[in-house]
Amino acid sequence: MKKKVSKRFKKLLAISKDKKVESIDTAIKKIKSNCTTKFNESIDVSFNLNLKSKKEELSLRTSVNLPNGNGKKLKIAVLCEDSKIKEAKDNGADICGNETLVNDITLGKINFDKLVATPSMMPKMGKLGKILGPKGLMPNPKLGTVTNNIASIVKALKKGQIEVKADKDGNLGASIGKKSFSDDKIIENYKVIVDTILKEKPNNIKGNFILSSFLTSTMGISYKLKLEK
Fold first, then answer.
1. Domain 76-159 class?
2. How far is CA 24 from each of CA 4, 31, 190, 191, 215, rounded to the nearest angstrom?
3. How far is CA 87 from CA 5, 56, 154, in A?
């Protein structure tokens, strides 16, 4: 049976025939004009990175502090000692605890988007790895989610800190705003994520690290972006 194509999607397909490489400024305007759904669509960016090396298998996983956030509200859980529960709650944590939280996770009750843990709680994480690992929820010292400074990381996550990770082919994607964001805020977020990625470039990679970049919306078409040299 032939699938029905909506009028909205047909219009987007017609637009896509004449797409060119665009500056970030122009691409945002075109993408917003294509956001014709009734909800506040996310604005997403994707990169293809040069992570090919004959000597070793390269990867990229880091955190990015988006100055304007991405419009998504995170539910944050903190696994910590009793003495740090008040600090976690006072700084915006949605769920706090230790043994009870561990038991809930063991039973599959995962009602959070990010998990922060203090170093002393990490021994309890061993049995949770198989549950949290596949979901990308394991706390990580490199990403700042294993720390005694609960106030700082919870505030950062609430303000707009996101995690980005490239797959084995060098593809990396992230949401950097909403249709309702001003163009300037989206551009600022885009530049920050680009700068962060470039700082993570491995020393043995020669030439351009970012090979291509595309911008799109939740229900829209993507535009290839001009990369600054």
1. alpha beta
2. 33, 10, 8, 10, 8
3. 52, 42, 10
Q: Which residues pair with 149 in a beta bridge?
A: none
Residues carrying CATH 3.40.50.790, the chain: 76-159
How confident is the model over 168-213, as pLDDT tens digits?
A: 899 999 999 999 999 999 999 999 999 999 999 998 888 899 999 9
Measure the CA–CA gap between 98 and 79, rounded to whole angstroms: 5
Tell me what pLDDT residue 161 has.
95
| pLDDT for 87 | 95
Can you list the positions of beta strands (E) in 50-195? 61-65, 76-79, 95-97, 114-117, 161-165, 171-178
Q: Which amino acid is at 153?
A: I
Q: What is the full DSSP assignment across 38-86?
A: SS--EEEEEEEE----SSS----EEEEE-TT--SPPPPEEEE--HHHHH
| Superfamily of domain covering 20-70+161-224 | Ribosomal protein L1/L10, rRNA-binding domain (3.30.190.20)
Nearest CA-CA partner of 225 in 62, 70, 48: 48
Q: Which residues on adjacent β-strands are paired with residue 214?
A: 46, 224
CB atoms under 10 Å from CB of 93, counted, come to 27
Query: Would you state the pLDDT for residue 15?
Result: 62
CATH 3.30.190.20 domain range(s) in the chain: 20-70+161-224
